[in-house]
Amino acid sequence: MEESLPQRCLDCLVRDKALCGSLGDKQLLDLSLLGRRKVVPKGSVVTWEGDDNPICANIVTGALKLQASTADGREQTVGLLFSGDFIGEPFEEESAVTAEALADTDLCIFPRSGFERVLDDQPQLERALLERTLKSLREARERQLVLGRKSARARLAWFLLSLPRGCDGTIDLPIARQEIADYLGLTIETVSRQFTDLRSSGVIDAERGGRRLRVVDVTALQDAAE
Amino acid sequence: MEESLPQRCLDCLVRDKALCGSLGDKQLLDLSLLGRRKVVPKGSVVTWEGDDNPICANIVTGALKLQASTADGREQTVGLLFSGDFIGEPFEEESAVTAEALADTDLCIFPRSGFERVLDDQPQLERALLERTLKSLREARERQLVLGRKSARARLAWFLLSLPRGCDGTIDLPIARQEIADYLGLTIETVSRQFTDLRSSGVIDAERGGRRLRVVDVTALQDAAE
DNA sequence: CGGACGCTTGAGATCCCTCAAATGTCGTGG
DNA sequence: CCACGACATTTGAGGGATCTCAAGCGTCCG
Q1: Whole-angstrom distance, CA of residue B220 vs CA of residue B167
Q2: Which CATH number fits domain A7-147: 3.40.190.10, 2.60.120.10, 3.30.70.270, 2.40.420.20?
Q3: Which of A40, A190, B78, B121 is least enclosed by beta carbons within 10 angstroms?
Q4: Nearest Cα residue in chain A from B154
């Protein structure tokens, strides 16, 4: 009788989108034995900066932010992760960032040491992780440009353009104003003022304080992002 | 008669420090056949942002900066690379950054496609590249914190602390004031003023305008870096 | 000697932050 | 159904850090 994948893998919503998509059914077996599903509630912390780094995980549903902070408590979000994304730092004893759930988040968690052993055995998994890491690095470099050189207006426009946009231009903001501020290296007040400016200049259409907006003038938004 | 490594590999100054250090003599053979040494003069560009991405390379001696730029020409240095570091973006058709030599730089260059084939065959090489990429990502995240949340003073202090320091506290700056400014998301004037302030408050000792300085009070510099 | 270059210094402007208060929304409980 | 508080967001006023523009200084090199 052949061993088979657990039901959670067969049913997995992100089987193809996540790292696992690089593996066939047989190859996935080892990894599947390590994984366990866990829902972490909004606001809870998955890994703490400077602490042990015991896990890696795939995000099934939900969202996480990766935070770095200064000694006096200012925070900078250094990455946003969504459904299908991978979180974790293989080969590192200590976590370099704090990972916090932005919403109730369903994770498929692997012990880091076990995950590393599967990397040893499954070159396709390692390749997929390498490609994802390279992509994360490119994105982190782009954010350095944004944080180092762009105005508040341009940062917000850049952020809005990075979000999935419906065909009618609708955007559902995945995060609150304060979290946008933490991501863009600004204060919440500045973010709010920039929203107001974009609204009153007709670039976007939105309710005051709302999480849903519509991009009216994409070209103007793209210009603003410079 | 056995094939053997080319003389440039046998003599290589960074054989152990660079990516190649992950490979034994036999395993290095394939890669060594691809590599060729090239000295690129200070100021010349190795890859252009948005252009073809034909090469990967190890830095033997010298230094490179990785630049991203806005449409209107403002520049942000998103990485500094030195002897032993790897440069290149495997699996990418288009380069995301401009790589420019900060000094006359001796590279060991591989065609990207050939390098990718060796990655397919040499798991140790791929592992070493993965670990380096993860390290670069951590560093890029730390720079996001610096760029998003730290004052000019703290940025410069952080930069100085990141440089190799002799036992008497001596630092030889590898780059000019303008390049420091590009790296720290500041202007050259602000960088210069911060140097002056650090000097007049006795934290560092340096000649006006000089490339060599001495850290007098490490603790004060560490405090300033917050 | 003269010019180019890199760095520093100064003055003023600007953008964003800080502090403070008002507004709006939502859920809870009376 | 309404009062209330908690919370997120907006708005306002003022200040400060950094940028911009301009000039000066020192060194190196032809």
Answers
A1: 17
A2: 2.60.120.10
A3: B121
A4: A70
**Are B153 and B184 in contact, with CB atoms under 8 Å apart?**
no
Let me know: does A107 contact A60? Beta carbons within 8 Å.
yes
- Identify the band that residue B4 occupies on the pLDDT scale cut at 50, 70 and 90: confident
Residue range B159-192, pLDDT digits in tens: 999 999 999 999 999 999 999 999 999 999 999 9
Q: For strand D, list residues 184-203 of chain A whose Cβ lies within 7 Å of it.
A: 188-189, 191-193, 195-196
Are B130 and A133 a contacting pair at CB < 8 A?
yes
Residue B94 host element (H or E): none
Position A186 scores a pLDDT of 98
Residue B123 in contact with partner chain A when CB distance is under 8 A: yes
Instruction: Say yes or no for a CB contact (<8 Å) between A141 and B71.
Output: no
Instruction: Give me the amino acid identity at A225.
Output: A
Whether the domain at B7-147 and the domain at B151-224 fall into the same CATH topology: no
From the CA of A3, how many Å to the nearest CA of chain B? 28
Res B159: pLDDT: 98
A49 touches chain B (CB under 8 A): no
Closest CA to A90 of B127, B204, B219, B110: B127
pTM of full prediction above 0.70: yes
Confirm or reject contact between B94 and chain A (CB < 8 A). no
Give me chain B's average pLDDT, please.
96
Does B149 contact A96 at a Cβ distance shorter than 8 Å?
Answer: no
**Token pair listed for A102:** 């932005």
Q: Over the stretch A171-202, which tens digit does the pLDDT of each residue have?
A: 999 999 999 999 999 999 999 999 999 999 99
pLDDT of residue B86: 98
A192 touches strand C (CB under 7 A): no
Map tokens 């946009």 to a residue: A165
Q: How far is CA A144 from the centre of its chain?
A: 16
Give the residues of chain A that fall short of pLDDT 70.
Answer: 1-2
Residue at shortest CA–C1' distance from D10 = A192
pLDDT tens for each residue of B189-204: 999 999 999 999 999 9
The structural domains of chain B, with segments of one domain joined by +, span 7-147, 151-224
pLDDT of residue B2: 60
B98 → chain A, closest CA residue = A141
In the numeric block, the tokens 């240095």 are attached to B77
Residue B101, pLDDT above cutoff 90: yes
Q: What is the CATH number of domain B151-224?
A: 1.10.10.10
**Which of B186, B161, B157 is closest to B171 using CA atoms?**
B161
